[in-house]
Amino acid sequence: MLKEIYIVRHGHPQMGTGLAYDRVPGPPLSDVGQAEAALTAEYLRGRDIEQIYSSPLERTLGTAQVIAAALNVPMQVKPQLAEHRSDEKYDDVKARIREVLAQLDAEPRSHVVLVTHGSPIKALLQVLSLDTIDLSKHIYPNGNHVPTAGVWRASRDLFGVWVLSLAFKPAAAVPAGHIPT
C-alpha cells in the first residue's frame, strides 16, 4: 500500500522544437531542465524511494531518468501519467489518474515518485484530496500548480487520509523568454 508519493513535474523543456507538446515524443529537456532534474533528485535522496513512474513524453522521461540514476532505483513508464491531450476532456485525465493510483496502491511499494505534467498533477492533487485542495495559492507559469521539476509530497496519515504539501521548488534559472507550460 502506498504511504508516500512524490509528484514531480518535468523539468524545463526545450523550446521551439516544433514538436507537439501533448503528444509523444514531445520536446526533450533543455539544459535548464536537466539542471532542475538534478536538483530534484538531490531533494529526493534519502527518502526511501522504491520506484519511479513516468509519463511517456520525452521531457518527463528525461526528468525521471536523471532522478532514477541519482537514486539508483528502477523506472517504469505509465501511459496514464501522460500530458492532457488537446482532444481529451479533463474528466478523462482524472479517470486515468484514478486508474494509476489504484494500480499502484495494489502493489507492495510504499514510497514512489510520479513524474508527470501540470494537468495530471492537478488531477492527482484533486483525487488524493477528494477535491478539497485549494490550489489558488499555487499558481506558476501557464496556470500550473507546481514549477518545472517541483515536487508535491503526498503522505498518508494514521487514518489513511492523504496530506499534501508543495515540498520542493528547484532553484535553476530559466532563461528570459522561455516560460514552460
Radius of gyration: 15 Å
How would the global form be characterised? globular
Percentage of residues assigned to helices: 25-40%
- CATH architecture annotation name: 3-Layer(aba) Sandwich
β-strand percent reads: 15-25%
Order of SSEs, N→C?
EHEHEHEHEE
Name of the CATH superfamily: Phosphoglycerate mutase-like
Total discrete domains: 1
* Biggest sheet overview: 6 strands, mixed
Distance between the termini: 32 Å
Highest-level CATH class: Alpha Beta
Count of separate DSSP helical elements? 4
Order of strands in the sheet with most strands: 3-2-4-1-5-6
CATH topology: Rossmann fold
Compute the number of strand runs: 6
Care to describe what's here?
- With 181 residues, the chain is an alpha/beta fold.
- The chain has one domain: Phosphoglycerate mutase-like (Rossmann fold).
- It is 30% helix and 18% strand.
- The protein has helices at residues 31-44, 58-71, 90-105, 118-128, and strands spanning 4-9, 51-54, 75-77, 111-116, 151-156, 162-168.
- A 6-stranded mixed beta sheet has the order 3-2-4-1-5-6, sandwiched between helices.
- α1 (31-44) packs across α2 and α3 crosses α4.
- The radius of gyration is 15 Å and the shape is globular.
- Residues 176-181 have low confidence and may be disordered.
